[in-house]
Amino acid sequence: MSPLSRRRFLRGGLEALAAAAVSAKLRPARAAAASVSATDLIPGDRGAMTLLQGAGCNVIAVRGPEGSLLIDGGLAASSESLLAAAASATGNARVDTLINTHWHPSQTGSNERVGREGGLIISHEVTRLYLGRSALSACYPGSYGPLPKVAWPRKTTRDKGSLEFAGQHVDYVYLPAAHTDGDLYVHFPERNLLVAGGPVLGDRWPVIDIRNGAWVGGLVNAYDVLASVTKPDTRIVPANGGLLTGAEIARRRDIYHKLFTQLFVYLNKGFGPDDVVAARPLKAHESELGDPTRFLAGAYESLMYAYVPN
Predict the structure, then answer these.
(1) CB 172 within 8 A of CB 125
(2) The whole model's pTM is what?
(3) Which CATH superfamily includes the segment(s) 3-307?
């Protein structure tokens, strides 16, 4: 099956699942106010680049001459606290540019505030499309969106893009069908730092949004890409959790490659998702990354959507 036909098949099956589901409106505002911590990432240059944690996802704030650059924006309920922490860390009163690594609520909760204040929002084209409608997901209960038009990204890419910000080059590049179908990673090559977005979690297994175009093959390909553009000592900012290194990304790539091969063995044996979970193919890594039940079930279901004809 070609990648294009496989993707059409996957999309059709997932849209049917979403249509059959009962949608309950997601209400991020019910979350408690965030307590946001700030960690300087550039020794000797306080506020130049800061890791902000506690607003729903890891956020990077970069000081700029006309305002800050943010990579992701946390949950809407945490946006006020996050933007205050970003202003305190960088000394910038406003956000000049916000890059969404994908469209989930934990990444796009500051879009409306930033958009209303005139900031430029950048994303993959798929992210912009999702934010304009209501969407179900394997990653949160109920539905999310649509956001007001002012919260939609004004600059999008279908492949990759770049910008110059505060004297440094910034690349943002598409990772197809990895965590969603609109994932970007953001690379600061001069800082030897990469923001990996949704496909990478610091201390637990990733989540594959099988309702929205992601599948285990896309996740494996994403780790191939990330391993190829980083060095062993590159600092990796995951969507949540502590910083990783390029060496750790390469090691996880090898884990997922081995799992991908094993999942096809299970598929040929006629296993179902419960059988895969019971087989515990990730047993050797459970002490490090926790219970893989949700990850294994989602990964295998995504493989079945891609390759099983019914």
Answers:
(1) no
(2) 0.90
(3) Ribonuclease Z/Hydroxyacylglutathione hydrolase-like (3.60.15.10)
